[in-house]
Amino acid sequence: MTTAVIGIGHIGEPLARQLAAAGERLILAADHAANANALAKELGPLATAEPVRKAIADADVIVFAVPFETIKQLIRENADLLPDKVVIDPSNAVRPDGKGGFERSLPDGQSAGATIAALLPARSHFVKAFGTLSAGSLASSAKRKPERAVLFYATDDPLAALAAERLIAAAGFDPVKANGVRSSARIEMLGDLHEFGGLNGRLLTAREAVDALAGNRKEKGL
What we know:
The chain is α/β, with parallel strands linked by helices.
């Protein structure tokens, strides 16, 4: 399996480093090709750098490690390449609230995950993942001991779930499914299962994550 990481920023760079260290084959792409080339050279023979469109064409899994609006644009520009690909969306649809914090940029009841999933062409395999922690925690909390920290993911697609679980584990975290795409808002920024939301900066263990999901189901009578 080859994974393209599109965007070498706060999410893309640490994720690429973690996956390369675990032996995953990577293609890196960024607006500034020199950044992708430099990181690929540093990561060794399993990593290469390519233009964005070629990276999408050549990979099995695409991680769009870029802002929400940029993902929408990239999907429009490359929709013909996305059927049969696994598409991983780490984005958070938020904006500054004018008070030193953030607020959602989508109406209530809408999530970044569901919005992105709806833009994808048929036969794409969508999963929301890698955006449930801050960039700092993603970089610093991999392979935490004595128990790994959790990265939640949300999908309705079995193939996408398998890819997400493999890459989350390779990155040094425990994967826990937070139900389907309709639950994406829970694991996005300000959601109840996000570090910068209901978790108030906490990173959960797998046991704690399962308890949190079970507790929510009980509260809703499910």
